[in-house]
């Protein structure tokens, strides 16, 4: 019987060698990845550990994060200008 001990989730930022490994108990069915940058492509793959060591990684899944920003705008009716401020890049 192949009793899993834990999972390891590999997160790789596209076009870099930057890799993050997160370990989760074998009872985990949902995992969250935090601290990702907006508008960046990441690849994810998963492997399981048992008493014999780590198994093979799954196929990679690649996703892009969305741009996160807040927009605020002001319009001056007496002049011909419009100001847009974007935060959160």
Automatic annotation (TrEMBL):
Gene3D superfamilies: Immunoglobulins. SUPFAM superfamilies: Fibronectin type III (SSF49265). Residues 1-68 form the Fibronectin type-III domain. This is Fibronectin type-III domain-containing protein.
């Amino acid at each position: 019987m192949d009793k899993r001990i834990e999972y390891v989730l590999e997160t790789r930022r596209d076009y870099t060698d930057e890799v993050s490994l997160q370990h989760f108990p074998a009872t985990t069915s949902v995992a969250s990845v935090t601290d990702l940058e907006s508008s960046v492509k990441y690849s994810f793959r998963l492997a399981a550990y048992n008493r014999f060591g780590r198994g093979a990684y799954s196929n990679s899944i690649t996703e892009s994060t969305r741009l996160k920003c807040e927009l605020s705008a002001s319009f001056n009716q007496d002049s011909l200008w419009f100001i847009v401020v974007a935060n959160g890049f």
